[in-house]
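Long-time lurker, finally posting.

We've been working with Sulfur carrier protein ThiS (Bacteroides difficilis) and I want a structural starting point before designing mutants. I don't trust myself to interpret raw outputs, so I'm hoping someone here can both generate the structure tokens and explain anything notable. Sequence follows.
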Amino acid sequence: MKVQVNNKEVELIPNSTLTQLMTQLELPVQGIAIAVNNKMIPRTEWERFVLHENDNLVIIKAACGG
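Top reply, 14 upvotes:
Generated this for you. Predicted structure of Sulfur carrier protein ThiS:
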């Protein structure tokens, strides 16, 4: 199954969750936010939020500075 993550194609196993995507991409647990198809997904839902073919994800990482 293919999804777009920050405008890059990523191959996932079918029925992957956001938590599984985070593990596959080796992203940190803290300091990020995820939107799927222009809708922010609360961190409390990541473990059970199932991704679908052609979903468009935006992952935002917090940065220090001003």
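Before you design anything, note these points.
Strands lie at 2-5, 8-11, 32-36, 39-40, 56-61.
Helices lie at 18-24.
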